[in-house]
């Protein structure tokens, strides 16, 4: 069987600024890593030094055959203090974008990928009633200078993740390391320390990962819509969307209503905010199964990833189909990946996932691209450097890059615009 994809299908991989650039010292995540009693297994430090090595990295992506690169612009670098914009940071990202163009790589830019400026925490963070204006002003400043170089942008990455964290961790009685709703969760002492490092107190400290109550979700939606409007006004040719993390929600007999409730919580309640977007960023890693009593643990013989997720490449196609029943706009797969030291399983994960994508295309679903998470083994937030999501291995002592077979495999697919069976 031939698995050919439409002309101009976007093939690439993705990173996030804080996870790869290194020394993002003005961000709230840097404060959390360095807080007293922090649960982060590692400090990000130099990360993989992508802020310095981006030209070599983009050249490597091109040599592998990839055609697109999704990365994030760091708000805390662009606006290190409220209303003070860094010309050097803007010029840095201009050069990243120009380098992409030089190597024939299509840039897809996320304006926010979890980390925020420290100064924002002093103003109440993402619970501040002015957050929509503050975020839109930052976006306007970037797109005024760089918009002509950005064909696709995500205002924010995984807007629904805080809700997923709240529900998942509250169900199993585990305190999540990256935080959830203030009113429903008593923060441990390290959060007070993180707040002090941001120059504020715990009652004002409200990070992106804590957006899970009705009030803050409303502010989040306003921030997306205002940012989208200002981007489209400033850079009319840029396509604007946002991304959501969506597991394949399944049910066994008796669990149907709970599964539907979870889907509404994870996806349905955010559906109104994407009306007016140009595309939808879909992100999938696994499947969740629900019964009458709640989420069902995977069987003992199930294959799990380093993150503890069920290995289920077919989840991607299932989620695409479910989303396409509710929205009628182009879908870009902005993340799909697996944490594993066994790269053969990553190759298999890509192949089987893409077979599902191809089936969806054959059924008329409008899918415009596939971006694998992630380009490199990088800093995986509270898990530090233990999780191996990358197509490319990085020696963090020498910063030497070593392409895995999965990188070559995805590159060959990108060049042929067709799934390569093995």
UniProtKB/TrEMBL annotation:
<keyword id="KW-0378">Hydrolase</keyword>
<dbReference type="GO" id="GO:0008422">
    <property type="term" value="F:beta-glucosidase activity"/>
</dbReference>
<comment type="similarity">
    <text>Belongs to the glycosyl hydrolase 1 family.</text>
</comment>
<dbReference type="InterPro" id="IPR001360">
    <property type="entry name" value="Glyco_hydro_1"/>
</dbReference>
<dbReference type="Pfam" id="PF00232">
    <property type="entry name" value="Glyco_hydro_1"/>
</dbReference>
<keyword id="KW-0326">Glycosidase</keyword>
<protein>
    <submittedName>
        <fullName>Beta-glucosidase</fullName>
        <ecNumber>3.2.1.21</ecNumber>
    </submittedName>
</protein>
<dbReference type="InterPro" id="IPR017853">
    <property type="entry name" value="GH"/>
</dbReference>
């Amino acid at each position: 069987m031939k698995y050919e994809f439409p002309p101009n299908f976007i093939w690439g991989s993705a990173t996030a600024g804080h996870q790869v650039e290194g020394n993002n010292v003005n961000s709230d995540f840097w404060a959390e890593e360095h807080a007293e009693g922090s649960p982060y297994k590692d400090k990000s430090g130099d990360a993989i030094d992508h802020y310095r090595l981006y030209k070599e990295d983009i050249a490597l992506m091109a040599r592998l055959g990839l055609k697109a690169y999704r990365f994030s612009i760091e708000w805390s670098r662009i606006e290190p203090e409220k209303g003070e914009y860094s010309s050097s940071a803007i010029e840095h990202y201009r050069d990243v974008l120009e380098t992409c163009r030089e190597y024939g790589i299509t840039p897809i830019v996320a304006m926010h990928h979890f980390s925020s400026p420290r100064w924002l925490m002093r103003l109440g963070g993402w619970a501040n009633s002015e957050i929509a204006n503050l975020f839109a002003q930052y976006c306007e400043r970037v797109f005024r200078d760089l918009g002509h170089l950005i064909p696709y942008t995500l205002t924010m990455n995984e807007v629904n993740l805080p809700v997923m964290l709240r529900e998942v961790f509250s169900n199993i009685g585990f305190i999540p390391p990256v935080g959830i709703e203030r009113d429903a969760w008593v923060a441990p002492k390290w959060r007070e320390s993180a707040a002090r490092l941001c120059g504020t107190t715990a009652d004002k400290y409200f990070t992106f990962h804590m957006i899970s109550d009705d009030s803050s979700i409303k502010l989040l939606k306003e921030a997306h819509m205002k940012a989208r409007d200002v981007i489209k006004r400033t850079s009319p040719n840029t396509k604007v969307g946002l991304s959501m993390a969506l597991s394949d929600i399944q049910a066994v007999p008796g669990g149907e209503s709970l599964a539907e409730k979870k889907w509404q919580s994870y996806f349905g309640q955010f559906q109104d905010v994407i009306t007016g977007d140009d595309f939808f960023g879909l992100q999938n890693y696994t499947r969740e199964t629900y019964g009458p009593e709640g989420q069902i643990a995977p069987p003992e013989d199930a294959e799990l990833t380093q993150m503890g997720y069920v290995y289920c490449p077919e989840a991607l196609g299932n989620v695409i189909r479910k989303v396409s029943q509710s929205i009628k706009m182009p879908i870009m797969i902005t993340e799909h990946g697996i944490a594993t030291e066994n790269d053969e399983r990553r190759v298999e994960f890509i192949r089987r996932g893409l077979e599902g994508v191809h089936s969806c295309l054959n059924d008329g679903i409008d899918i415009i691209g596939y971006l694998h998470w992630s380009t490199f083994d990088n800093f995986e937030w509270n898990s530090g450097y233990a999780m191996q999501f990358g197509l490319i291995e990085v020696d963090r002592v020498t910063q030497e890059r070593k392409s895995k077979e999965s990188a070559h495999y995805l590159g060959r697919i990108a060049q042929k615009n067709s799934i390569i069976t093995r």
